[in-house]
Amino acid sequence: MLARAMRRSPMLALVLLVLLACEPMRAPMDATVDAGLDAPVADVRFDTRVDAGCTRVPGELVGERSIESGELPLLSWPGTEGAVALRDHHEPCAPAGRVIVIRELTAWSAQSLWHVAHTAALVAMDDVVVIDLWAADEDAMPMRTERLDSVVARYDELPDAIASDPDEQLGAIAIGGIALPIVVVLDARTLHLERWFTDPRAGEIEDAVRATQARLREQTRPPPFEPELLDGRFTRDRWEILEAMGAPYAPPPSSSNAHADDVAAAALGERLFEDASLSPSEVACSSCHQEPRSFTDARVVGRGVEDVTRNTPTLIDAAGSRWQFWDGRADTLWAQALGPIENEREMASSRLFVAHRVASAYPADYEAIFGALPPLADGARFPAEGAPGDAAWEAMRVADRDAVTRVFTNVGKAIEAYERTLVHTRGRFDRYASGELDALSVAERDGLLAFFQGGCPQCHWGPRLANDAFFAIDMPGVGEGALGDQGRIAAFDTLAASETRAQGAYSDDRTTPDPLDGLDAFPERMRGAFRTPTLRALGDSAPYGHAGTFMTLRSVVEHYARVRRPHTPDPRVIGVRDPHLIGFEDGRIASIVAFLEAL
Questions:
Q1: What is the pLDDT of residue 48?
Q2: Residue 40 pLDDT more than 50?
Q3: Structural domain span for residue 164
Q4: Class of residue 331 by CB neighbours under 10 A (exposed 0-12, middle 13-18, buried 19+)
């Protein structure tokens, strides 16, 4: 199977374009959230007769083929090893019951990743061809063929083909919002679309295949699959995702910072974090990231020297994020720590000012960790203040500028070492996820079920309850239109030019693959997109949203519940809403809030 799959590894990019005309085939939104359990799976039947003598030729189809007639045309897709076409899987003379299963997936979706990790059961079925289409990578960027290698390790067994589908062609069959994965089942003899559904439960795809095969073979349908419900609520897939959400957590390694887990560096970092004298305006990191408030500040937007335009995010579990800041303009935590220091609205300091402060207040501690300081007492070589772009800085020798920048970046690395110790405290939810069922009340457990039914764990998963991907979700920001907060799309130039990137000269390991390779900009879908925040420390970190728009948890949940309903557009919302927001009925709002308050 592995050899076969590797031979057929080319990518699909234009799957089922004709599904755009599929309005009569669509199921109501309730059916796409919990297809097969909370509502019936859409079951579409067509005439599947094949001539008895099988005079048809593989890859040759006659007549007009469209989704209305239940027949897919012979689409082709570019791949890393040449073109691949649906004709390669068209088998007009195959025995009745041979089917093609196509799954639309994203690397940011917990449910997609669960199904990928349980592919073996589907691949092992007789007369089944499995094709996986990857629409997006872990950052919610359109999947590029060269990025497909990053998902291969997720599989317990490879399917017949793995492809990229950045336009998410199968998404056209979902009304209201796309719950992932999307699954379609085709008759391999005719390419008839036999069944489709979204967000399947554990065992549901295999059950759909068995039912389809029985119908095509004119056999009695096998007994429907009856899933076991853990705690009377959760199917196996949801429970395993839930278990991973409550698993013990520790920050992943920080290869770009050789002192990330150095106790002495963390101790120095904590002192620097609290030191307002690193700024001429007496603003410290802790001025905005206050420990009693889960390292936030209870303000709508942060305030250093003056107000900024975004809400102060918690530092709890920040070391586990692939990207820093709401727009991801830093890819290391130590780079994030440095950003506010030289920001005119925040600490309004400079690297020369910081280096002199370190030399005067922390020389022994610094040198014990990072080595000798430069001769900063030489005022002719090292002015009191200055940063790139300042006249005083630009007048310095290149080697001296580099020496100061190394002190500056080491300050960031010490602060990162401290911030890596800021992890969430395991609570009642985590005890529940480990099997202590009475750790949550009945109302909170029902809220957790509603949380799953509303599609929330597609993004909020893992111990940090965040996938670190970027989405435009109709969150109002500061400013309007072209003057509004453009989010991720505007971060590209800053990130690409940053000297403190994981691949930059001041990184302790520059071998990290560069996610910007091959890109000269972020795509339009990243306009107005912001990083998925952690759901840890919710109780102390209000207000919520990248601009602090929502003062209570209930107001946030109401936003998600109603986001797809008709409403008056808010001019502060930038970008096109992500299609994976599915919304949910108002009756679930209070229940979900009850669960979130238990985190």
A1: 43
A2: no
A3: 2-227
A4: buried
Furthest C-alpha separation in the chain: 94
What number of H helices and E strands is found in the chain?
19, 10
Q: How many CB atoms lie within 10 A of CB 403?
A: 20
Q: In b/e form, how buried is each residue of 148-163, taking b as 16+ CB within 10 angstroms?
A: beebeeebebbbbbbb
What torsion do the CA atoms of 137, 140, 145, 151 make, to the nearest 10 degrees? 10
For residue range 383-393, what is the model confidence (pLDDT) as tens digits?
999 999 999 99
pLDDT higher than threshold 50 for residue 23: no
Tell which residue, 365, 396, 125, 398, has the closest CA to residue 263.
365
Tens of pLDDT, residue by residue over 292-318, are 999 999 999 999 999 999 999 999 999
In a domain, 428, yes or no: yes
Same domain membership, residue 200 and residue 83: yes
Of 457, 14, 22, residue with least CA distance to 199:
457
**Which of 72, 20, 21, 64 has the alpha carbon at shortest distance from 46?**
72
Quick one: average pLDDT of 187-208?
A: 94
302 and 438 together in one domain: no
pLDDT above 60 for 32:
no
pLDDT > 90? residue 229: yes
521 vs 63, residue with greater confidence: 521
Mean pLDDT of 180-188: 94
Question: What pLDDT, in 10s, does the model give residues 269-287?
Answer: 999 999 999 999 999 999 9
Task: Provide the pLDDT for residue 5.
Answer: 38
Token reading at 361: 């207040």
Would residue 197 count as lying in a domain?
Answer: yes
Q: How far apart (Å, rounded) are the C-alpha atoms in residues 117 and 385? A: 54
3-state percent breakdown (helix, strand, coil) of the chain, nearest 5? 35, 10, 55
Q: Are residues 156 and 281 in the same domain?
A: no
Query: Quick one: 70 and 146 in the same domain?
Result: yes
468, 531 Cβ separation under 8 angstroms: yes
**Which residue is it, tokens 């990330």?**
260
Give a yes or no: residue 373 inside a domain: yes
Give the Cα separation of 185 and 312 in Å (integer).
46
CA-closest candidate to residue 455, choices 228, 199, 196: 199
Angle at alpha carbon of residue 453, lines to 450 and 455, rounded to 5°: 115
Across the range 388-416, mean pLDDT stands at 97
DSSP string, 242-264: HHHHTS---PPP-TT-TTTT-HH
Residue with tokens 């910081």: 354
Structurally, the chain folds into a number of domains equal to 3
Residue 585 token pair: 């009925």
